[in-house]
Amino acid sequence: MMQSHILKRICPFILVLAFLGPPATGMLNPAAVYCDALGYQYVTESTLEGDFGYCILPDGTKADAWKFFGGVQGEEYGACARSGYRQEPSSDPTLCPFAQCAVCIVPAGTLIPADILLNLRYEETSCGDGTCGTGEDAIFCPLDCRSGDMDNLCDGIRDNRCDPDCPDGLNDPDCGGVPWEGAELIYIAVLAVLAIASAVIYLFLTRK
To answer: Tens digits of per-residue pLDDT, 191-206?
Structure first.
């Protein structure tokens, strides 16, 4: 009876601790996440040897998803090519937490893993958890991602932070580049000045 009485007293505390404890997080498939982040279709096929994942590339090629992630297939459709960088496969453990990954060669010869360039995360996250994860950016999840963060979004907002998602600093005024919106306004202003100047010259000539 004493043991039953003790269990009745401590069970509520165990339940409370269970709810207060950190939620369990799962690990996503990096090759699938990389394929999906680029907007391609990830499919799995079952064989006698097991299940295999493939990434359907824009030209219809069915690339082995892990080889695509590793930079040995579909290089022209990878994250590096999309950002205008050269790519090479790497098995350097300081760059790749997995057996192999694609790395981008950015200006000055710096190597950046392609998944880092895309700001990919492989833990299951949700907006509001304090982590700027895969599929989140400063527009769709400002709670976790700030403007200028590496979130696969070059927003071109002046925030005193050079956005690493803007290739070579273009389209971000904080990197020294001119955002498209700014360039468009300058173009309109120049046309307006030329139109006014032409009108003044025309009036001056017609009065003579």
So the answer is: 677 778 777 776 766 7
* 40-60 pLDDT per residue, tens: 999 999 988 888 999 999 999
Distance between CA atoms of 145 and 197, rounded to whole angstroms?
46
Give yes or no for a contact between 111 and 103, defined as CB atoms under 8 angstroms apart. Answer: yes
Apex 68 CA angle, 62 and 73, nearest 5: 75
Percent of the chain with pLDDT over 70: 70
Beta-bridge partners for 64:
54
Q: How far apart are CA 98 and CA 70, in angstroms?
A: 9
Residue 186: per-residue pLDDT: 59
